[in-house]
Structure formats: structure tokens, C-alpha cells
């Protein structure tokens, strides 16, 4: 692996907005083992293919989130002494209104290590936990005290990966549902 950069970066236009538009969670699986899996050297997934080469699909579960209720941060963790570098992905989301279904989902998510695909407000689909999955590292349920307080839950997922993240090719949804470029992704509500 080369440690030299091969390109620079210009100043981009001031047309970006922060925030998360959608959250898609998949029970962990080794995506690189999928028949037909393809990713570029720039960590762009161009095809997932079928699981195990058959007609099985990559099942994702959509978790709707309100504006400004989710965030993603990727921190670089590097140690000069040991010569190691990895990236810590921290994804936090808040869901309003407590339900028993939410409590059950939290139990399942906390026990597993799902992969999370985040759709940002630019239409980018960012896969977190590509190789190692994501772990629930914090979670709270709140009833609130005042009428205007949060009644809901906040979850924090943390992942540690060798790469900052992967993106899915053709992710600019242009008002279309995400994943239209991928034949084997099935979105569940």
C-alpha cells in the first residue's frame, strides 16, 4: 500500500446541507462474499449481487427519521508509536414516540452488529460497518417531563473500520427511491 497522495481537492461550491435523510439497516453479513460484489479502489460499491450466488436479496429495513435528528461522524484514530490507523464511525439517531416495537428493535440491534446505510441530504448512500459491523454503544429511552420534551429514544452506533466508509454507486436518487441501481437490495418498512 502506498502512503503517498495522488490528487488534491479544490474548494467546493456552497450548495451542501448537513443532515441525514434516511437510515437503512441490514443484519450483518460479509458483503464482499456476495456473488457479484464489486467495489472500486476508491471504496465505491458498484454491485452487491445476490447473497451466495442465488436469488437471495440484501434485505434492508428503513428507519424513518425526522430532520435534524441524526448525525454521522467519522474520526481518524492513528498511533504514531504503533504505526496503526483506523476509522471510528459514530452514528447517532433519535426516534420520536416510545413504542414496544422500538424497545424490541433496540434489543435486537444491541445484540447484533448490523451494517447501516445512511442517506445524507446530498443523496449519498454511505455504508457503515462494511467489514466489522456496527455496535450499539449507547441508547436511551425518554418520556420527557414537560409537554415539549422528547418522548422517544436515542441510539448511538459505533464501528471501527480500516477505511473511513464505503459509498454505493449511483446514489444520487434525484427524487427516486435509493438503491435503484442495485437489483438485489430489497427495502422493508
Radius of gyration: 18 Å
Strands of the largest sheet, in order across it?
A: 2-3-11-8-7-1-4-12
Number of helices: 1
Beta fraction: 35-45%
Report how far the terminal alpha carbons are from each other. Answer: 41 Å
Low-confidence stretches: none
| Whole-number total of structural domains | 1
User: What structural category do the secondary elements indicate?
Assistant: mainly beta
How many DSSP E strands?
Answer: 12
Shape: globular
Rounded mean pLDDT is: 83
Give the gist of this structure:
It contains one helix and twelve strands, in the order ββββββαββββββ.
Provide structural commentary.
With 189 residues, the chain is mostly beta strands. The chain has one domain (20-188). 6% of the residues lie in helices and 41% in strands. Strands 2-3-11-8-7-1-4-12 form an 8-stranded mixed β-sheet, with no helix packed on it. Strands 5-6-10-9 form a 4-stranded antiparallel β-sheet, with helices on one face. The protein starts with 19 loop residues before the first strand and ends with a strand. The mean pLDDT is 83.
Q: Secondary-structure map with pairings?
A:
Layout: E1 20-26, E2 38-39, E3 44-47, E4 58-63, E5 70-79, E6 84-96, H1 100-111, E7 115-120, E8 125-128, E9 135-142, E10 152-161, E11 166-168, E12 185-188
Parallel strand pairs: 3-11, 4-12
Antiparallel strand pairs: 1-4, 1-7, 2-3, 5-6, 6-10, 7-8, 8-11, 9-10
Amino acid at each position: 500500500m502506498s502512503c503517498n497522495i495522488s490528487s488534491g481537492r479544490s474548494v467546493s461550491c456552497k450548495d451542501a446541507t448537513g443532515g441525514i435523510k434516511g437510515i437503512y439497516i441490514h443484519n450483518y453479513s460479509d458483503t464482499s462474499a456476495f456473488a457479484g460484489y464489486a467495489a472500486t479502489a476508491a471504496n465505491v460499491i458498484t454491485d452487491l449481487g445476490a447473497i451466495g450466488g442465488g436469488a437471495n436479496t440484501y434485505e434492508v429495513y428503513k428507519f424513518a427519521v425526522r430532520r435534524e435528528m441524526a448525525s454521522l461522524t467519522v474520526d481518524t484514530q492513528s498511533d504514531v508509536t504503533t504505526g496503526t490507523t483506523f476509522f471510528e464511525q459514530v452514528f447517532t439517531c433519535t426516534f420520536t414516540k416510545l413504542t414496544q416495537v422500538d424497545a424490541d428493535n433496540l434489543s435486537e440491534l444491541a445484540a447484533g452488529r448490523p451494517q447501516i446505510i445512511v442517506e445524507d441530504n446530498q443523496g449519498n448512500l454511505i455504508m457503515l460497518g462494511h467489514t466489522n459491523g456496527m455496535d450499539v454503544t449507547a441508547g436511551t429511552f425518554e418520556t420527557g417531563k414537560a409537554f415539549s420534551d422528547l418522548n422517544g429514544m436515542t441510539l448511538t452506533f459505533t464501528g471501527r473500520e480500516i477505511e473511513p466508509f464505503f459509498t454505493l454507486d449511483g446514489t444520487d436518487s434525484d427524487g427516486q427511491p435509493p438503491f435503484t441501481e442495485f437489483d438485489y437490495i430489497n427495502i422493508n418498512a
